[in-house]
Amino acid sequence: MACGMWQCEFMTPQPQPVLHATTERGEKIMLRPAEPGDVEAIFTACTDPETLAWTTLPLDYDRARAVGFVEGYAPGWWERGDGACWVIADAADAYAGQLDLRIDPRDRQVADVGFLTAPHARGRGYMTTALRAACEFGFEHLGLERIEWRAHVGNDGSRKVAGRVGFQLEGVQRAGVAQRGQRRDAWVAALLKGDPR
Ligand SMILES: CC(C)(COP(=O)(O)OP(=O)(O)OC[C@H]1O[C@@H](n2cnc3c(N)ncnc32)[C@H](O)[C@@H]1OP(=O)(O)O)[C@@H](O)C(=O)NCCC(=O)NCCS
């Protein structure tokens, strides 16, 4: 394995950390690596119409992709030193969503986030709590100074989550994101290390 950031910083390879957090309602959640037992729930979440409407996931997402997510995509971010992809697990350690923190290869003090909550787990504060924990980790342990959030214009749920964590809206990027071959306008917001959270 190439010498990624985590090996260089810690001298020895470190496993992807598990983050623990508690929602405002008092529910405990965990941000942990994806596991084979998550596959069915990932498939359900990634084929949900609301998920597909607001993300770049393919419309033909199938179980093989969910297996690929667990075995390759998710662990790959940490193994390469490019960030982290966590599964958000509820108090019973069941899959409730996922969150990527992806470091910009051209400017390693900057990262962006991507996330989704499983349909059955929405509206319980999971993503607000998970995003806050991931940002805290990025600022404290990965040397980040700026974390960016981008969403298709109109994704009010995602905007609410980002706003609650302290992300400040910076504007609209016209045709800022590609979704399955179509350019869409994007809201852009960012959280800086020194911002109130
Ligand atoms: C957006 C999303 C991640 C939010 O996750 P969540 O775990 O439900 O978020 P939270 O419970 O922490 O907070 C959601 C808040 O947004 C609100 N909300 C959700 N959908 C909304 C909408 N369409 N319009 C306005 N507010 C909305 C919820 O009511 C809640 O606020 P409340 O606690 O005051 O009621 C989830 O709805 C989702 O996965 N959507 C599909 C995929 C997606 O959009 N991903 C983000 C791409 S940028």
- Molecules bound to protein: coenzyme A
CATH homology-level superfamily: Gcn5-related N-acetyltransferase (GNAT)
Measured between the Cα atoms of the first and last residue, the distance is 36 Å
- State the secondary-structure class: alpha+beta
Figure out the total of helices.
Answer: 6
* CATH fold assignment: Aminopeptidase
- The percent range for strand residues is 25-35%
User: Which sequence of strands runs across the widest sheet?
Assistant: 1-2-3-4-5-6-8-7
What is the overall shape? globular
Oligomer: single chain
CATH architecture: 3-Layer(aba) Sandwich
Task: Describe, in short, the structure shown.
This protein has helices at 5-10, 39-46, 49-54, 63-80, 126-141, 156-165, and strands spanning 19-22, 28-32, 83-89, 95-104, 107-117, 146-152, 168-179, 182-192. The chain is of the alpha+beta class and 197 residues long.
Structural account:
The chain is α+β, with helices and mostly antiparallel strands. It has a single domain (16-192), classed as Aminopeptidase, CATH 3.40.630.30. It has six helices and eight strands. Strands 1-2-3-4-5-6-8-7 form an eight-stranded mixed sheet, sandwiched between helices. A hairpin with a 2-residue loop joins β7 and β8 (182-192). α2 (39-46) crosses α4 (63-80) and α5 (126-141) packs across α6. The longest helix has 18 residues, at 63-80. It starts with a helix and ends in a 5-residue tail after the last strand. The structure holds coenzyme A. Coenzyme A is lined by residues 50-51, 54-55, 115-117, 122-128, 151, 155-158, 160-161.
